[in-house]
Amino acid sequence: MQEVSPAALSAPLPAPARGVAHARFPLRLLHRTSGLMVALFVVVHLAGHLAGLAGAAAHQTVLDALRVVYRQPVVEVLLLGCVAFQMGSGLVLLWRGHRQRRGAVAWLQAVSGAYLCVFLLVHVAAVLHGRSVGIDTNLQFAAAGMHTPPWQWFFGPYYFMAVTAIGAHVGCALYWHLPEPVRGPVLAGSLLAGLVLGAGLVVMLAGGPGPVDLVLAGGPSAMLAGVGLKGLA
């Protein structure tokens, strides 16, 4: 959630303001570092879900292989810590820059970061609660809301906007650190990738390429009821 460009922060400042800007730099740097770790997991996580295009069995095979790594206690604690820090530091940076924010790119970065914060809070809480009551938080878990009217009208935009926001936020972060001739196309490409992947994920979860096997007993309604969050899986 780097809401203000480095160029804006490098402008001449009075001595006191210069000291404040310097003090904030470590938080911004740590935010980027934790963001890289979270982004790596998100790429792997999305790849695992998109494996569902080859069927629920293929998805489960990929998921089981990935879980051998990211469900190791040390890795999981580190990942959850990065997610928590990413949300907290992002909100701090979002608030600190609200008076300085200028231009469409800065606002796109801020809005996409704010949505990702909300999404991560809801999604991680739902997954952890689902696991605590014995639900396998796999493709069927993700697809359940898309097959339980009227919750598909919540889950469709919920997932689509999350993946689109990832593309937008990553593109904006790259934008500030690339030379002028390429940063615009890189931002546009990242945003387009988010839009395409988001639409593809929603279509897949809705059963567009073929029926999603909802294997839990009682179907999606039972799954949502087991999580205890209904529309927030």
Features:
mainly alpha
Main sheet properties? none
Number of helices: 9
Average pLDDT level: 82
The residue fraction in helices comes out at over 70%
Strand portion, in percent? Answer: under 5%
Q: Which blocks of ≥5 consecutive residues have pLDDT under 50?
A: 6-22, 214-223, 225-233
Overall 3D form: globular
Structural class computed from helices and strand pairing:
mainly alpha
Order of helices and strands: HHHHHHHHH
User: What is the tally of beta strands?
Assistant: 0
* Distance between the first and last residues' Cα: 24 Å
Q: Radius of gyration over alpha carbons?
A: 19 Å
Quick recap of the structure?
This protein is an all-alpha fold and 233 residues long. The protein is 74% helix and 0% strand.
Ordered list of secondary-structure elements with their pairings:
Elements: H1 6-9, H2 15-50, H3 56-70, H4 73-96, H5 104-132, H6 139-143, H7 152-175, H8 180-205, H9 219-227
Helix pairs in contact: 2-3, 2-4, 4-5, 5-7, 7-8
Please, could you describe this protein's structure?
It is a single chain. The protein is mainly alpha-helical. Helices cover 74% and strands 0% of the residues. The chain has nine helices and no strands. The protein has helices spanning 6-9, 15-50, 56-70, 73-96, 104-132, 139-143, 152-175, 180-205, 219-227. Helix 2 (15-50) crosses helix 3 and helix 2 packs across helix 4 (73-96). It starts with 5 loop residues before the first helix and ends in a 6-residue tail after the last helix. The model is unreliable at 6-22, 214-223 and 225-233 (pLDDT under 50).
